[in-house]
Specification:
The chain is α/β, with parallel strands linked by helices. About 40% of the residues lie in helices and about 15% in strands. The chain has a 5-stranded parallel sheet with strand order 5-2-6-7-8. Strands 10-9-11-12-13 form a 5-stranded parallel sheet, sandwiched between helices. The chain has a 3-stranded mixed sheet with strand order 1-4-3, with no helix packed on it. α5 packs parallel to α6. The longest helix has 20 residues. The radius of gyration is 21 Å and the shape is globular. The N terminus is likely disordered.
Length: about 300
Amino acid sequence: MHSSLAQRLAVTGSLPRNLHRAGSPIRIGFLAPLSGPSSPWGTPGLEGCLIWANWVNEQGGLAIGQQRRRVEVLARDAAISDQETRIAATELVERAGVRIILTLGGDSLAPALPWLMSRRVLTTTLLPFDLSPETPTLIAPAEVHPIFVVTGVEWLASTRPELKRVALCSQQDMMGLPSLATYRAAFAAEGMQIVRELRYPPQTADAVGMVAAMLQDDPQVLCWCSSEPHMVHALTEAAFQAGFAGPILSCTGDNYRRMVARTSAAFMENFIFHFPDFDDPALAETAFFFRQPAAFHAAYQQRYPGHWSAVS
């Protein structure tokens, strides 16, 4: 099977050598949370894009027709306010002349999405559930969330079939609710009973109180669904302090080393999440869309130590 141009550009910037370099760059917009509680997702995503752009530029740039053109990534914060997000999208397109806008999707994209679609701006999302007939120029470059979270439930059911009682929680937003629905379906498919379900507002949540409530029904498994990084950490530490010793399922496990340091290695051996570090040897021997994963991970760790996340 021959790799596509998109696959070749994913990291290496591998392009034909008989192209001449153009003077003007290709500008790529990045519109995601760079401040506030969601910044541990948005900022690492930007950092990964900057490394990709550097690698492409080191290869001479992006192939556009018979030219190589350098790539510039222009970032704006989507966490200030809905109005600022709409203004940022307008400025990126109308003033900066970006050709595509990269986003996380969900609530952070929602304020700008109608305008972007009305102008037919090519826009990306990491959340396939953003796609609809009303979003003709929105693309999801990977089926990332929430479908794949069922694999954690399936694996747990196959390795620990005696575990049947689950308590789960999810934030009430466009990230959390689809994740909650998917985990529900996965547990039902495996014959696992949900004994407690909590939904919490993203900005004001008491992790200690939530874990205490979840443990009242004597669950064998806890599940954080697709909670944001700060809540994953707070909930996990609360479960450890409460003496819970069973498996924990979570969509993400960003900065898991910090969780290990604040709980214990033995406790975190029961923590199941879905994003491997790219230095995993198994990835180097697996044919998938991302070439040189270990080299990318090494470059990322050198440039942004301690920032690696599910969005990097």
